[in-house]
């Protein structure tokens, strides 16, 4: 499915624990200084730029197959994904057991662990989704990372 069809199909569907899906707005990368300083409780030393780091280089391997998905709810809390986080989803990767994936289950999108015939939450207070209980399940892509704002 091409990106425009994917996004328009998302806009027509209800969601499970997915609030929004975004595509890349630009092919430009922003490079941010990466300092070599280690935080110390005693002696301070001058900070030197070790390298320049791009979030794209760290998080996005295939820009044309990558989406950003805002998560809602706490079903992946123990995986370190909290309400409001943005996960990076790569549609070009082959999903394997144990991967965190973006899946479509009966017209709703959800982020879960891929298991044998199940999608498992990262929170013991949430229920697994059994493949046999759904009419249609499609694995959309593999979650490769996440981003969170603190301020």
Could you describe the 3D structure shown?
- With 151 residues, the protein is mainly β.
- The chain has one domain (3-27, 59-147): Umud Fragment, subunit A (Ribbon).
- It contains two helices and ten strands; from the N terminus they run H-E-E-E-H-E-E-E-E-E-E-E.
- The protein has helices at residues 3-11, 55-59; strands at residues 18-23, 31-35, 49-54, 66-71, 86-90, 100-105, 108-115, 118-120, 129-130, 137-147.
- An eight-stranded antiparallel beta sheet has the order 1-4-5-10-6-7-8-9, covered by helices on one side.
- Strand 8 and strand 9 form a beta hairpin.
- The longest helix has 9 residues, at 3-11.
- The chain starts with a helix and ends with a strand.
- Pfam families: Peptidase_S24.
- Keywords: Autocatalytic cleavage, DNA damage, DNA repair, Hydrolase, SOS response.
- This is Peptidase S24 and S26 domain protein.
- Belongs to the peptidase S24 family.
In short:
This protein has 151 residues and is mainly beta. It is built from two helices and ten strands.
